[in-house]
């Protein structure tokens, strides 16, 4: 008995054939393109976009007075990000400034005392000269009366009176010398005191500079142009010095891609090679890049516990070599690439190398 096919069956058969033909053609085109890409490119999808993401760290502790940014906000170099209560730091600065003023006043007092003692020493030195002249004159007088006494032309009382006057003049001369020596010694003592005060003044000035730095640290500013990341602080929160308060993505440096190629793919890669980059988020947009460095070791060698193949359970695994690729182009065009995005990287196999 013959099996009859209806018109509907024939139409379904034709449509199925056309669909199968189109699928075969599409698969053929996809296979040819894939094989061609494998032939002319070394490629990997084990690659991510990288930028410098730095923490914003407080160098002074205290209460947060104000937060001047929001997450994902663009900031410029020098923009104020946070304000920390600075009253304790300004009080310490004022105390140090007062101590500096006190030390400077002490120096002025010592300078005044030095001038006074210098005048006293000058007067004592003049007194020495006068007393010396009186002793010299009285010594001549005593010698003359001694000769007269020997010739019995003067009495012993006269000689004793002249001798007592000579003894008084000698005492005054010695006293003038002692006064001058004391004044000079006091001047030397004051100079030593000045040295101590000046050393303390130098210490206080250094301490003042430190307090000024502490006051400046209470204003946290952006170190460069960038975009703020996650924010972890609010006004009124108590923070410690060295605490991470937020993150900022640096817009002043290049973006780059770290592509982990198999060790069998890097034989002909060189610094300066042109690179094609396609992000998973923008599959229809090509980005250009340049190889700027190849890692000196495999990724596993930098791990916390690098493999030890001498333990006897060795299994050969193809290793990955991190390749750093700078993303080329105008900043506003490549800003769509965010840190951590997955990308596919294609490096032509045949490039001119010197």
UniProtKB/TrEMBL annotation:
The keyword Coiled coil applies. It is a single-pass membrane protein. Residues 257-347 form the p-hydroxybenzoic acid efflux pump subunit AaeA-like beta-barrel domain. InterPro entries: AaeA-lik-b-barrel (IPR058634), MdtA-like_BSH (IPR058625), MFP (IPR050739). One of its GO terms (cellular component) is membrane. Residues 142-179 form a coiled coil. The keyword Lipid biosynthesis does not apply. The chain crosses the membrane at residues 12-32. Residues 56-249 form the Multidrug resistance protein MdtA-like barrel-sandwich hybrid domain. One of its GO terms (biological process) is transmembrane transport. It holds the Pfam family Beta-barrel_AAEA. Keywords: Coiled coil, Membrane, Transmembrane, Transmembrane helix. It is found in: Membrane. This is HlyD family secretion protein.
